[in-house]
Amino acid sequence: MKILQDKPSVTALILPKFRFIQSMTWGLIGVCFITLSACQSQSSNSDETNPETVEDSIEEQVILENATVDQVNSEGKTLWKLDVKKVVYDKNSKAANLEQVKGELYQNGEAFFEIEANQGKIINDGEKVKLQGEVVATDKRNDTVFRSEQINWLPEDNLIVMPASIEGKNPQFNGSADEGKYHTKKQELELTGNVKGTSNDPALELTGEQIKWLISDKLVQSNRNLKIKHYQAGSETVKEQVTANSGKLDLAQNIISLTDNVKFESIDPAVEVTSNDMNWDIQKQLVRSNQPFKLVHLEDNITLTGNQGDINLETKIAQVNGNVEAVNQANQAKLAANRLRWNLPTQNMEAQGNVVYQQRKPSINSRGEQATGNLQTENITVQGKQGEQVTTEFIP
């Protein structure tokens, strides 16, 4: 570490690892330090002063005001540079306390992170920089602003640790949590504990216990329980919401991919969908599952299951393929087929392939190749292939 001057004419003192650069406006203690250092060399023959004692006392602590503190790596590239109102460096503990901090963090020799704090501490000659008190930091590469009461910067690990409440904002997404970690090289923010994330377009709110925000890739992902709400634009009305054990939000495409114990709920149409795999394209208003799923029409209490399918939230039409079965829970009427198209507002269904329709009163079991009708009113017409008859069994 070096104590240097922004302007020439003041002597520099060599210290380890990082440097103090003090402006021409010297604090009183700084003047005493330089004066004592000079007096010691000129009064070595004095009987009243022990030179070794004076030198040791001076070198144990450096106190400067209106100074710049920086650190460089073995290649001479700057790791960080901080302007401070006051700095107190202790040689024995290899630490420096800072007041009113403002500066930049560097990567590959270029400043990428601006930072401000009320106070700070440089630990172990620059291995760690700890900033506290209304810390505001900005990553200039992606316009993300971080706010916290404490930020710990580990230059060698390309890591910023935020052990206190953290908030990160950029034009696409806002995230907050009890604590966080920012991997500066990868531009990835990890948020843990009471996580809340929001976006304006579309109006989404994400809550959970842990997320990873890949800022440069415009992705938010989690491998823990999460919940996402989609609001009506400009209001607090929830249009749809989904919960899952893990998931990913693509901020560029506005697509949510969810896995493991997924539950999707919509107000209009009033449906509930459960599966272990689901993609929700918010822009296209399309919910799709490539694994077995269950769709429940909440108002009419009709359940639809199948191997895969999708729901268009705009047209309110569901299409299901593979081992399809629709059941009216009120009257236990059933319609099974290979494929089924369901118009949710009208409740009309169109089924194709190995169709089986069953009802209780009167008890009917009808088989054919296709069917149309309304399961709620038990008005279903079954048809066979061309030239084939429909098999219908009436059970007394």
Can you tag this structure with a few keywords?
396 residues; rod-shaped; disordered N terminus; mainly beta
Number of helices: 2
Main beta-sheet annotation: 31 strands, mixed
How many beta-strand segments?
Answer: 31
The low-confidence runs, each spanning 5 or more residues with pLDDT under 50, are 1-16, 23-49, 51-58
Determine the mean pLDDT: 83
C-alpha-based Rg, rounded: 34 Å
Q: How is the quaternary structure best described?
A: single chain
- Indicate the proportion of strand residues: over 45%
> Would you tell me the structural class of the helices and strands?
mainly beta
Quick one: overall form? Answer: rod-shaped
> N- to C-terminal separation?
98 Å
Helix fraction, binned, reads under 10%
Question: What is the fold's blueprint, element by element?
Answer:
Layout lengths: L1 E4 L7 E2 L3 E5 L5 H15 L8 H10 E12 L5 E13 L4 E13 L2 E14 L4 E12 L4 E11 L4 E4 L3 E4 L4 E4 L1 E5 L4 E12 L4 E11 L4 E4 L3 E6 L6 E7 L1 E5 L4 E12 L4 E11 L4 E4 L3 E5 L4 E5 L1 E5 L4 E12 L5 E10 L4 E12 L3 E12 L4 E5 L7 E5 L1
Parallel strand pairs: 1-3
Antiparallel strand pairs: 1-2, 3-4, 4-5, 5-6, 6-7, 7-8, 8-9, 9-10, 9-11, 10-13, 11-12, 12-14, 13-14, 14-15, 15-16, 15-17, 16-19, 17-18, 18-20, 19-20, 20-21, 21-22, 21-23, 22-25, 23-24, 24-26, 25-26, 26-27, 27-28, 28-29, 29-30, 29-31
Helix pairs in contact: 1-2
Structure report:
Helix content is 6%, strand content 62%. It is built from two helices and 31 strands. The chain has helices at 28-42, 51-60, and strands spanning 2-5, 13-14, 18-22, 61-72, 78-90, 95-107, 110-123, 128-139, 144-154, 159-162, 166-169, 174-177, 179-183, 188-199, 204-214, 219-222, 226-231, 238-244, 246-250, 255-266, 271-281, 286-289, 293-297, 302-306, 308-312, 317-328, 334-343, 348-359, 363-374, 379-383, 391-395. The protein has a 31-stranded mixed beta sheet that branches. A hairpin with a 7-residue loop joins strand 1 and strand 2 (13-14). Helix 1 (28-42) runs antiparallel to helix 2. The chain is rod-shaped and about 100 Å long. Mean pLDDT is 83; it is low at 1-16, 23-49 and 51-58.
